[in-house]
Amino acid sequence: MNLIGILDLFTLLFTMLVFSIILIRWKHQFSLHSKVFLIFSLSAILFYYLSNFLEWSGISDIFIDIEDYIAILVPLLWFFFLYSFFQMLSGQELKASEKKFRVIAEQSSMGIIIIQNGEFKYLNPAISKITGYSIEEMLNWNEMNIANVIPKEDLIFVMDLFKKGKEGEINFTPNSSFRTINKKG
Question: 34, 128, 163, 178: which could form a disulfide with 84 (CB 3.0–4.6 Å)?
Fold first, then answer.
């Protein structure tokens, strides 16, 4: 067995170890598509390194033609593997960030409403206390229903905030406030 055969064997074993650790450690965090792709990638990469090992150690060169095609794909497969891995990590960071936001928003005494595409997507408990409407009721609202809880004098200001928010140019100042009308009047 020559030095290249030994290096290919080492690379094969190391690759198997790395993929095994990653798949075992993070198997629940990868999406199904990522898992399927990772298994395909692992199989192709392992086949490539096994073929190299067999060729360079003098055992067999039966896979030499297929090996050349897979050799072209190996860098691309590594790239997609890394892409999937970083996607999984960024998904975890997003979930952690959302969890922090929820903890802060749920504890806030200020009313917080998140509106996407004209629909109420999130309301914290404080907004329910302020308006007297339940969160479930308000989740069925759209931005036009906001007139139920905003006095006419402040409604233009609030609708302007919605318009600016849709256009992506909203800048709240710490003093930005408006009055509300409770459900009971």
Answer: 34
